[in-house]
Amino acid sequence: MKHVLFLILFLVNVMQVSSQIFDVETLKLSGDTNKRINLVILSDGYQESELNQFTIDATDFMNDMFSQSPFAEYVDYFNVYIIKVPSNESGADHPGTANDVTEPASPVLNVDTYFNATFDAYGFHRLLFYEIDGSYANNTEAKIYDVLANNFPSYDQALILVNSNVYGGSGGIFPMASKGVVNGVKATEIAIHELGHSLFDLKDEYFPLDEIYFSEAINMTQQSDPSLITWKNWLGTNGIGIYPYNNSGFAANWYRPHQGCKMRYLSYPFCSVCKEGIIEKIHDLVSPIDSYTPSSNMVNSPSFPIDFQLNLINPIPNTLQRVWTLNASNFTNNVDAVSLIETDLVEGTNTLKTVVNDATTLLKTDNHETIHVYTVTWTINYSALGVEDINSIMNNLSITIYPNPTNNIINFKFENSNNLNLKIDVVGLDGKKLKSLLVSNYETQQLDISNLSAGIYLTNFYANNTLVASKKIVKN
User: Where are the domains positioned within the chain?
Assistant: First the structure.
């Protein structure tokens, strides 16, 4: 995947920063940068002679991250790189200006580092940030953008690892963490927590929080009705419930899904709701179809049998389902390759399609709001003379259904990379079609089901006359 740089900020601020080229090293290469989430780790407080240690420290962080679910299951969806940015001196600043400890809690230091890593930021001893008070007077953020733009512009997320054994870290656009350890908890856990914010749109689950940080999100809501809450599909499973942030005041009206998630306590695992949110973002960013063959027009009458192959990015364990259809009829399931012979084809145009979706149990698909589907379609022109040509196209589809359950109106939102329309059929459990709807690309359509009896219905989704997904909806 490629990160879209904030060009206006870059042009206004970064032009004033001299561009530098540093050594870039690959820690983990799973695939092409355009087909993976690219995590980039920058060094700060490492002198030139210490950059080999930075490689070791960054590798340790990467291994810690990918030992945790759901990153462990989706490890091959990521590339990891480091940019070796040398500092003039080792460590980080300790101004001794924190308000939450008796200073000096650490020896007062003023260290010349490239990204100005500074403890005591905003008055908190363990808040390690590249500014001390938010004034951004040293233009460090522009320096970070500049280093990324000139050394690895196709990043998706960057973070900064600081060469200090004092525990500390911070979040924001570019999370920062030291190498420190407190009570057996590594400061790099802060960076993993902060990636939950900056890359995966998760909210903090601890209290106290300023009111400005509260909003509806994957793991935060003001809704307390079990039938309407966004994580209703997980209630009663793996400790998921509806827990208030506090017993009184503003926070008492906001709820989190779990009492012991990493978004609340470091060194804890992500809860089921946050895992689901992370996986959904991975599905947004990366198609599980890495490549396929044939991938371009084929002429000159290829000989039979003709082989069709998927190269997939498999989760661990592999939870990808593959459905193959030929001319809208099921051909085979859950294989990565098929072969066609003459008798499989009809004269004229033939359509071979594979539909791929992730059936991981880390997603609760029955009540999940969004379905991600990935397809490859081959069009095969066949005549008495043989196969004249084969054309192929890949499509990424996102189908969102809400609210579910509903009393009367249900919304369908559709997005796909090939500008197709989506045909929706609502059928009863007896198979009888009750409602139909056509939704265009990037469109949201409403369907009135108020005249249907209360119960469960099946919704089938068709693109180019091929069934790509099915989902249960509940009419209250």
Answer: 23-280, 289-382, 388-475
